[in-house]
Amino acid sequence: MRTLRTILATGLTAVVAVGLAACGGSSQNGGSNGSGSDSSGAVTLKVGATPAPHAKILTYINDNLAAGAGIKLDIVEYTDYNQPNRALNDGELDANFFQTVPYLENAEREFDYDFTAGAGIHLEPLAVFSNKHKSLSELPDGGTIAVISDASNQTRALELLAKQGLVQLPADGSEASVVNVTPLKNFTFKEVEGPQLVRSLDDFDFAVINGNFAQEGGLNIADQALVVESPENNPAVNVLVWKTANDKQEAIDKLEQLLHSDEVKQYIEQTWTDGSVIPAF
Question: Secretion signal: which residues (predicted)?
């Protein structure tokens, strides 16, 4: 299993170099592009993604940059976080773009996937929202705080709450969850699936919500968030992921290059001006 840590050891430069060398046309050597070429010679990559920002970024690439690199993207949208890795592992996708490095590492440990991840593309900071209160200091006795149900993002949410003095993290340094942190005030946690957090915000005193779910639900981090996760040295970057053994590596390398292009960086900065999505390169 090769994830971001091993890719970064070799550096994005190698990936970019491969992509640049390949941009002149699709290779006929050794079937590295597989059989997915259209009449123009562009290699089609079937990529799974959650709607925003991932599918939006891929759509921008497909509409503006992909043809020049000799690729075409068939974007499959998912709202269930469990599906894109399964589909990739089963050969239904050539790559996916929806997850953070910690989420991927948890999935690899649980399901023994043999995946490779590229370098970090963007960060979606977590933020605390409320429709009932203007500050975390207003948390009532016996109140409720909603956190995402998936393990890796839940750890991030609890670390954010720990910095606000609401919980104490495990003393042994183990991964924080709602069952092993110590609340420092009288409140209860509610675990909620990511896409439901915004919709159920009225049911809780506070909710810790990922940037992508916040902006999908119409929340503005810059104007409405009470606390925002720091992007500095944050490991929870989003990455492109593919099967280590595949027959389209040359085309995948081209997509990895485009995802780290100046054009995509500018697109992210101009599209998500509220800071809900931040370039990581």
Answer: 1-21
Q: What is the pLDDT of residues 74-108, one digit of tens each?
A: 999 999 999 999 999 999 999 999 999 999 999 99
Cα torsion for 126, 218, 75, 106, to the nearest 10°? Answer: 20
Phi/psi of residue 11, nearest 5 degrees: 95, 145
How far is 14 from 167, CA to CA, in rounded Å? 42
| Tokens linked to 183 | 């609340």
Token match 């699709």: residue? 26
Long-range contacts of 197-205 (CB under 8 A, 24+ apart): 197/146, 197/148, 198/129, 200/146, 201/129, 201/130, 201/131, 201/146, 202/131, 202/132, 203/144, 203/146, 204/130, 204/144, 204/145, 204/146, 205/130, 205/132, 205/133, 205/139, 205/140, 205/143, 205/144, 205/145
pLDDT tens-digit map of 11-50: 444 444 434 333 333 333 333 334 466 667 999 999 999 9
Domains of the chain by start residue, with CATH: 4-124+234-279 (3.40.190.10), 127-228 (3.40.190.10)
Q: How many CB atoms lie within 10 A of CB 179?
A: 6
pTM of the complete model? 0.80
